[in-house]
TrEMBL record:
Alphabetical keyword list: Hydrolase, Metal-binding
Annotated Pfam families: FAA_hydrolase
The organism of origin for this protein: Silicimonas algicola
Gene3D superfamilies in the cross-refs: Fumarylacetoacetase-like, C-terminal domain
Family (UniProt): Belongs to the FAH family.
Entry annotated with the keyword 4Fe-4S: no
GO molecular function terms noted in the UniProt entry: hydrolase activity; metal ion binding
Listed name of the protein: Fumarylacetoacetate (FAA) hydrolase family protein
C-alpha cells in the first residue's frame, strides 16, 4: 500500500490476514500497520458501530506489523501476511446509473443486447437524440420528468434512464459479506463474458444507523454482455468469485478528510495489459447525479434495516468505448490486465484480472470468522 505524505496524516481502518492468527483489524500510524483487534471491537463492523469510530482508532493500542508496503504482496495464501477487503460483516451494495455518461452506455448495452459489434452505431443514434440533455438534470426533478416524456415519444426510453433520472435510484447487492477481495488480490471475470470493463468507484462505509464514518475505493467489475442481454441477469453479471474489490483501507472522516472531500474526489484508473496495452481514464465525483447521502437513504431507513451496516458503491462516470483489438468492438479485459484505481487521499487499489474460476475460491465465511474470533477469546 503506497501513500503520500499527506495521506499518512489520515486516519485509516482496514483488515489484514495474519498467518496462524486470521483476519485482524488494523490502522496505520506513520506508515506502520498496527493490529488494533480487541474485545471492544473485534471486527471492522464493530468499530464503525461505535459512537466515535475515529476516536477509537486514534487511541487504540496494538501490535506493529511492519510498514504498509511490507504487506502489499500479490497473494491470498493463508501462510502470508496480506491485505483483505476493509469490511467484514457488512452487506455490499452498489448503485448503478448514477452518472449521465455511464447511463448512456447502459442504454447502449441494452439496445445492443450484449453484442459489442452493434454498440458504435447505437451510440451514435442515442447521442444524436439525447445530446447533452442529461448532463445538468437533477434526478427525480420536474425537468427530468419532461425529458423522460420526450424520450418516450422518440422511442428511446430505457429502464436505465428510468433509474438514472427518475425518482428512484438503482441499488443492487454486489457481493456477500466477507467475499470481497482487497488490494493486491486477483479479481475475477465470469468465464462466459467477452465484453467487460473495470468500474472505479467511491465506496461508502455505512453503519446500522445510516451514518457514514468513512470511505474507500472499489472496483465494481462490469460484465457488459451479460447485463446487456437482460437486466434480470444482473446477479450473474455482478456477483461472482472475486468480482468485487474494495480497498486499500477505509479512510475515516476527521479534520484531514471529510465527506465533502469524497464528493469532490477524482478517481484515476489505469489498465495495463501483459501485451503492452495501456488504458487510462477517470471518474469525477463532482458529476454524480445524486448526492451520496441521498443514495444512502435509498438503502437504509424504515423500509430496510442493516444491523451490521453496509458498504455502498456509488457508481462511476467511467465507461470505456475505445477499441482495444478490432474496430467497433470497444474495450474488454484480457487475462493478466493490471487494474489500478487511485485517488488523492484514498490511496491505490491494485488488482490483476483472472477468470473467476481461476481466482482463489472464497472459503472463509461468517461461521469461520465467528469460530476464529471465539478461538482468540475476542467474543
Amino acid at each position: 500500500m503506497r501513500l503520500s505524505d499527506e495521506e499518512l496524516k489520515g486516519l485509516w481502518l482496514g483488515r489484514v490476514w495474519r498467518p496462524g492468527i486470521g483476519p485482524s483489524v488494523v490502522t496505520l500510524r506513520d506508515g506502520v500497520a498496527v493490529d488494533i483487534t480487541s474485545k471492544t471491537a473485534p471486527t471492522v463492523r464493530d468499530v464503525l458501530e461505535l459512537e466515535d469510530p475515529a476516536a477509537h482508532v486514534r487511541d487504540a493500542s496494538g501490535e506493529s506489523l511492519g510498514t504498509a508496503s511490507d504487506i502489499s504482496g500479490l497473494t491470498d495464501a493463508k501462510d502470508s501476511l496480506h491485505w483483505l477487503a476493509p469490511c467484514d460483516l457488512q452487506a455490499v451494495k452498489a448503485c448503478g446509473v448514477t452518472f449521465a455518461q455511464s447511463m448512456v452506455e447502459r442504454v447502449i448495452e441494452e439496445k445492443a443486447a450484449g453484442d459489442p459489434s452493434k454498440a458504435d452505431a447505437i451510440r451514435k443514434r442515442v447521442t444524436e437524440i439525447i445530446g447533452d440533455s442529461l448532463q445538468s438534470l437533477v434526478a427525480g426533478s420536474e425537468k427530468a420528468a419532461e425529458v423522460k416524456a420526450e424520450l418516450i415519444r422518440v422511442g428511446i426510453w430505457s429502464q436505465y434512464l428510468e433509474v438514472g433520472i427518475g425518482p428512484d435510484a438503482e441499488v443492487f447487492s454486489k457481493a456477500q459479506p466477507l467475499s470481497s477481495v482487497g488490494t493486491g488480490a486477483e479479481i475475477g471475470l465470469h468465464p462466459v463474458s467477452t465484453w467487460n470493463n473495470p468500474e472505479p468507484e467511491i465506496v461508502l462505509a455505512v453503519n446500522s444507523r445510516g451514518e457514514v464514518p468513512g470511505v474507500t475505493l472499489g472496483n465494481d467489475v462490469n460484465l457488459r454482455d451479460i447485463e446487456g442481454r437482460s437486466a434480470l441477469l444482473l446477479p450473474m453479471a455482478k456477483d461472482n468469485n472475486a468480482s468485487c474489490a474494495i480497498g486499500p483501507m477505509i479512510r475515516l472522516f476527521d479534520e484531514t478528510y471529510s465527506l465533502d472531500d469524497a464528493r469532490a474526489a477524482v478517481l484515476d484508473l489505469t489498465v495495463e495489459g501483459e501485451d503492452g496495452y495501456v488504458l487510462a481514464g477517470r471518474s469525477l465525483m463532482s458529476e454524480i447525479s445524486r448526492d451520496p447521502l441521498d443514495l444512502v437513504k435509498h438503502v437504509v431507513g424504515l423500509h430496510h434495516q442493516y444491523p451490521d451496516g453496509f458498504m455502498l458503491f456509488l457508481g462511476t462516470l467511467f465507461a470505456p468505448i475505445e477499441d482495444r483489438d478490432h474496430p467497433g468492438q470497444g474495450f474488454t479485459h484480457k487475462i493478466g490486465d493490471r487494474v489500478t484505481i487511485a485517488s488523492d487521499g484514498l490511496g491505490r487499489l491494485e488488482n490483476t484480472v483472472r477468470l473467476s474460476t481461476d481466482c482463489p475460491q472464497w472459503t472463509f465465511g461468517l461461521a469461520d470468522l465467528m469460530r476464529n474470533l471465539a478461538g482468540r477469546n475476542l467474543l
